[in-house]
Amino acid sequence: MLETAYACSYLHDYLRKVPVRRFGIDVSGLNDKQRKRVGYWLFLCAGMCYGAVAIGGLTRLTESGLSMVNWDLFRTMKPPLSQKEWEEEFERYKMYPEYQYKSSSEEMTLSKFKFIWNMEYGHRMWGRAIGIVFLLPCAYFWAKGYFPTTMKRRMAIATALILAQGGIGWWMVKSGLDPSKNSDTSVPRVSQYRLATHLTIAFLLYSLFLYNGISHFVAPQAKVSALNFNSFI
């Protein structure tokens, strides 16, 4: 018992003296209103990334991810509105493996196609909304001098990840539309490796936004506050 008490006391004294790297961001140059404004914006971005993962999971559960067979940053923002436009979109879908697979077990009607198409459309538009919600305020805060050097580097990384995420999403979907990529299975699937890449970037963005958001409300710590191990003895 005495040996345990001595060891805990020694460890406690040691931890009090050990400096640790400051992971927080020094935002002392901002007033309280500015600091909270940036923090809440980052929390919003983190929440939207969380929502994107949830919507993406729902899209996958409803087998809707391969319903949009083309990708364009701007032109695909407009959904089909007329009956003719829906029929044209449906005809494009029929050219790909998923239609052949689904129609072999059940009738794939236009109304069913509209449902899965709208699911995937919502997922893509949510991703575009994240880009707008992040990039526009980021440019404003950067121009106003709200970001210290460390924050500028992190926001540059976030910008690169967001811009890459759209292309990686299409790269993933494309693997499920290519018959040669599905030759070993009768069920059209996207590459699990591309899917993992797409999901990993979403997790990285969520973590980046959440951590930096918290950093605007919690002051960085220069040392670890050592636990008082003696209280547990």
From TrEMBL:
Domain of life: Eukaryota
Topology within the bilayer: Multi-pass membrane protein
Keywords tagged on the record: Heme biosynthesis, Iron, Membrane, Metal-binding, Oxidoreductase, Transmembrane, Transmembrane helix
One Gene Ontology term from the biological process aspect of the record: heme A biosynthetic process
Record's keyword annotation contains Transmembrane: yes
Pathway annotation: Porphyrin-containing compound metabolism; heme A biosynthesis; heme A from heme O: step 1/1
GO cellular component entries: mitochondrial inner membrane
Compartmental location: Membrane
One MF term in the entry's GO annotations: oxidoreductase activity, acting on NAD(P)H, heme protein as acceptor
Coiled coil: none
Pfam families to which the protein is assigned, alphabetical: COX15-CtaA (PF02628)
Spans traversing the lipid bilayer: 38-58, 125-143, 155-173, 193-211
Alphabetized InterPro entries for the sequence: COX15/CtaA_fam (IPR003780), HemeA_Synthase_type2 (IPR023754)
Catalysed reaction equations from the record: Fe(II)-heme o + 2 A + H2O = Fe(II)-heme a + 2 AH2
Cofactor: heme b
Name assigned to this protein: Cytochrome c oxidase assembly protein COX15 homolog
Species this chain originates from: Heligmosomoides polygyrus (Parasitic roundworm)
